[in-house]
Automatic annotation (TrEMBL), chains A, D:
Lineage summary: unclassified sequences, metagenomes, ecological metagenomes
Protein name: Unannotated protein
GO MF annotations in UniProt: iron ion binding; iron-sulfur cluster binding
SUPFAM superfamilies, per database record: SufE/NifU (SSF82649)
GO process annotations (BP): iron-sulfur cluster assembly
InterPro entries for this protein: NIF_FeS_clus_asmbl_NifU_N (IPR002871)
NIF system FeS cluster assembly NifU N-terminal domain ranges (all copies): 7-127
From TrEMBL, chains B, C:
Family membership noted in the UniProt record: Belongs to the class-V pyridoxal-phosphate-dependent aminotransferase family. Csd subfamily.
PROSITE patterns per the UniProt record, alphabetical: AA_TRANSFER_CLASS_5 (PS00595)
SUPFAM superfamilies documented for this protein: PLP-dependent transferases (SSF53383)
UniProt keyword list: Pyridoxal phosphate, Transferase
E.C. number(s) listed in UniProt: 2.8.1.7
Protein's recorded name: cysteine desulfurase
Lineage: unclassified sequences, metagenomes, ecological metagenomes
Classification via InterPro entries: Aminotrans_V_dom, Aminotrans_V_PyrdxlP_BS, Cys_dSase_SufS, Cysteine_dSase, PyrdxlP-dep_Trfase, PyrdxlP-dep_Trfase_major, PyrdxlP-dep_Trfase_small
Length: 145, 421, 421, 145
């Protein structure tokens, strides 16, 4: 079924058992992003130490794509240098804009290649990017501190 | 299951709509249940617009040549059609680009007259809306309140999705100048009790602005009977083209209403420093208007009138009844809005267990079923219900009982699909 | 007389325009010289709009279904086409209903931000326009001046129909915040010297608003090269549908520009009392947009690009030259506007002796020739010239030399007709 | 020629040799009317004595139809009772709205039946009515005095 390309098992797993959900008590930069067209919301809290993403936690409500994406993102970038994290972010963004022509680089994206199918559904790209954009926003602010 | 008691022959009607000749998602039949967002168009409407361009296109009111005469006749003829449709007089019909523009036109007009203008809103005045308004009938009034220092208050919505009228006399008090509300909720399907609200509003001297976006396309409107002061709807939800809306206002009110958009054709006299205004409706239609769209809209209203609005409402209610009954049988399904068909139109919002509406909508789409998901531009309302989104099915004259069945089957399929994984 | 040096094959072009298959006034060939008011439409544009309705119609940005995806792609694709046409970036393109709406959007935005907003106009500020503005680019600024207490001043027009730039440094002084002017006069045909005006405006920190209604349909536009800050034109004068306009603004300006129409799709977040805004262009496109018209406009711009705007301008200038020469031979004829084709477009206004323009237009109409008469929505300009009205012929790519001859013969006929009586 | 139905000889005669043109020095009510779509203007001055239209003079610029119409109007109503004048006005207005289906009643309209052809040209109806509307406006005001 075509729909399976969108709802890969790993996405639904993250949706059902999200990682790093629940905002940490540790200090960090917290941002709140909203998808105005559907009402989905995500709060992402990021702490950066010496150029390394020390902790990413989040909370939110939304569809499987948006929640799974933020869950996977938080797991992927934690422990990476900001530069490396941004490489993944850029690769993920490019994948989303590929209109189904790219499968994504698993070397860079790891499990997040599962979102490749989303790029064929233009209305869902924003869902998949919601958490990433929040991370970008928060990490830029965190570095500026 | 086909509902044999419907007064409409949908099979015949569907033949008039070219879009139903296509399929979606690899050959699936298109089950279009998103008419609340925008309706599909019959070939007659598409042709009316095209034919204007092909044979009569010219700038109205401006040229001394035959094409200009014909274009003017077509455009002003469309105004007459709309007037007939609303049982209004022709000079009370203003063409805008959309209901959104109409409502903004009004909200701006309430703060752009001079201090003596009867519409001028000021600090201490009150504007009343409801918690179930579409953003288009909420934010313009928020902004008006901010600009003027007026107070914005609202009717709350009960858990059943009705307006809570228990505090009507306190809400609509003697400071109240404007009561703006929707005729039918685009989320809940609720039809609001106008009589009581209009009576109270007029008692305190307020004007009533009715958002008829979800009613005028589906039921017969008689502005005199409704008793409201301004009314608007969009063409594209009423089988008409995009890019056209209607604003109706009582002529004695339009007479004093300040203009909104300034430019050609809305003037009486112009010098470098000043200008005076033409009478309504011209005063509110600056520039070369959306002529082809007005012609298309007239054709759409004619189509609706020929089918019969009573029949259309009755047909939609049967489908609504069928869907509500079907949803009642799905344990996980929760309906937002009235669960009976009393004072209700053919728009049904619901959630299904933990399946996010967006995911449900996506699954339905994979089955060819087009619904809408989200807050439906009535975000404060979805928040009031403590949710971020619903899935919404909305009916029109071309839908039939088999499509309700398809939707119900689709919901079951989605439950299966997302459970298994 | 046919002009053999034209780069366009008008006979071939005319076949694309269905309206030229009809006749007017009892079988007369239609000689349409009123494109300055509105242009005719090629079949490809009419079909593009119709085809959107027939096959892809749905509300953009809103649905989670295939039709909504297709509609969004069509609408956003149209935005890309417009961006390419103006050599702008895609997020700088705002769809409005018309140039009139675009200019009002801007004028309102300059008084609706908070006091810290960079666009907020106040007492002591200055707005500069010109004496040759269309009402759409004059009255919104008059009203802005009235609302804010700002001062409205203007470039005068010389007897030859050019802007008098002799006082440019006094007119555009350090108080100046906005310079709003037309690229090409819709009455005189004059093309204004932007370079000098833009340079001076930017020197004092003012933004330049360009009304490109009469230029964008006829000559290649590059917003970067023009150096202006905002630009607008209407679709219907550029072979496109009615009900669609374009507003372009520099992205760094649009970022801070307050919204104009409030409603669905232009928001970021909404509560009962407040709302925040989406980024541009969404912030300026409230409600279900004029999707089909945007698609039609994209098709029109594609048509123009395929023919070639350089060729179109060159062709129109040949016709203009021919008409100016012909009018020079008619003793009673007086042209308003440049008598050479330098910095001039294909719009020619004139009077013929004591024949009132309205009567002349009526006579020409009886010969199948469609021109416009009156003040052309630039009343202060006609008054400046001490007249009430002119007759105006305006050319487009589908006109040819034989039509100029027909017009000249028509003028002679009118002189005969009204003299005899 | 079809156009001749619009430009009747009597209309062109009035246009070339207008009657009652030039505003009277006598007291009266003066109104200024404009046709905003073309810029034509007319000033009409009316004096009413004991319910009788004593004097109508005017000035203006405009097309043959508008100028001839005000000229003929001023000649027709002068000396009539206000009621009789209004009968003509109503008849003339009805004629203008007849879309070419009426020839006008010469008993009431006299020479003004020449304007019957105007009703076939919708854009010109306003021209023909300009002076009449000004008269209506002025005479109502004059009676109110
Ligand atoms: C120079 C100019 N500006 C503005 C306008 C207004 O355009 P629209 O009526 O399409 O809004 C026109 C055309 O009428 C025009 O010629
Ligand atoms: C109740 C209601 N009001 C207003 C609107 C706004 O209509 P439009 O987007 O056509 O301006 C809509 C539709 O979106 C609606 O459903």
């Amino acid at each position: 079924m075509e729909l399976d390309s969108l709802y890969q098992q790993v996405i639904l797993d993250h949706y059902k058992r999200p990682l790093h959900k629940g905002l940490s008590k540790n200090s960090g930069v917290q941002v709140h992003h909203i998808n105005p067209s559907c009402g989905d919301e995500v709060t992402v809290k990021v702490s950066v130490n010496d150029g390394v993403v020390a902790e990413v936690t989040w909370d939110g409500v939304g569809c499987s794509i948006s929640q799974a994406s933020v869950s996977m993102m938080s797991d992927l970038v934690t422990g990476l240098g900001i530069k490396e994290a941004n490489v993944i972010l850029d690769e993920f963004t490019a994948l989303m804009q590929s209109k189904g022509t790219s499968a994504g680089d698993p070397e860079i994206l790891d499990d997040a290649v599962a979102f490749a199918g989303v790029s064929k559904y233009p209305a869902r790209i924003k869902c998949a990017l919601l958490g990433w954009m929040a991370f970008k926003d928060a990490s830029v602010q965190a570095q500026a501190q | 299951m086909s509902n044999s008691s419907s007064p409409l022959d949908t099979a015949v009607i569907r033949r008039d709509f070219p879009i139903f000749t296509r399929t979606v998602r690899d050959g699936k039949k298109l089950v279009y249940l998103d008419s609340g967002a925008t309706s599909q168009k019959p070939e007659s409407v598409i042709s009316a617009e095209a034919n204007f361009y092909r044979m009569h296109n010219a700038a109205v009111h401006r040229g001394a040549h035959q094409l200009a005469e014909e274009a003017t006749e077509a455009y002003e003829g469309a105004r007459e059609s709309v007037a007939k449709f609303l049982r209004a007089t022709v000079d009370e019909i203003i063409f805008t680009k959309s209901a959104t523009e109409s409502l903004n036109l009004l909200a701006y007009a309430f703060s752009s007259g001079d201090s003596l203008n009867r519409f001028q809103i000021k600090r201490g005045d009150r504007i009343v809306v409801t918690e179930m308004e579409h953003h288009a009938n909420l934010i313009p009034w928020q902004q008006l309140a901010k600009r003027t220092g007026a107070e914005l208050v609202w009717f709350e919505v009960t858990p059943e999705g009705r307006l809570d009228l228990s505090k009507i006399s306190e809400l609509i008090n003697s400071d109240t100048r404007i009561v703006a509300l929707t005729h039918q909720s685009n989320v809940l399907g609720t039809i609001n009790p106008l009589e009581q609200i209009v009576a109270r509003a007029h008692e305190v001297g307020a004007v009533v602005v009715l958002d008829a976006c979800q009613s005028a396309p589906h039921k017969a409107i008689d502005v005199e009977k409704l008793g409201v002061d301004f009314l608007t709807f969009s063409g594209h939800k009423a089988l008409g083209p995009t890019g056209i809306g209607v604003l109706w206002g009582r002529s004695e009110l339009l007479e004093d209403l300040p203009p909104f958009l300034f430019g050609g054709s809305m003037i009486e006299n112009v010098s470098m420093l000043d200008a005076t205004w033409a009478p309504s409706p011209r005063r509110f239609e600056a520039g070369v208007p959306n002529m082809a769209q007005a012609v298309g809209l007239a054709s759409a209203l004619e189509y609706l009138t020929n089918v019969g609005l009573e029949k259309i409402s009755a047909h939609e209610l049967l489908l609504t009844e069928q869907l509500l009954a079907g949803l009642a049988n799905i344990e996980e399904a929760k309906v937002f809005g009235p669960e009976s068909t009393v004072d209700r139109g053919g728009t049904v919002s619901f959630t299904v267990g933990a399946i996010h509406p967006h995911d449900l909508g996506q699954y339905l789409d994979s089955q060819g079923i087009a619904v809408r998901t989200g807050h439906h531009c009535a975000w404060p309302l979805t928040r009031k219900f403590g949710i971020t989104a619903t899935t919404r099915a909305s009916f029109y004259l071309y839908n039939d009982a088999s499509e309700v069945d398809a939707l119900l089957a689709g919901i079951a399929g989605a439950q299966e699909y997302f459970k298994d994984k």
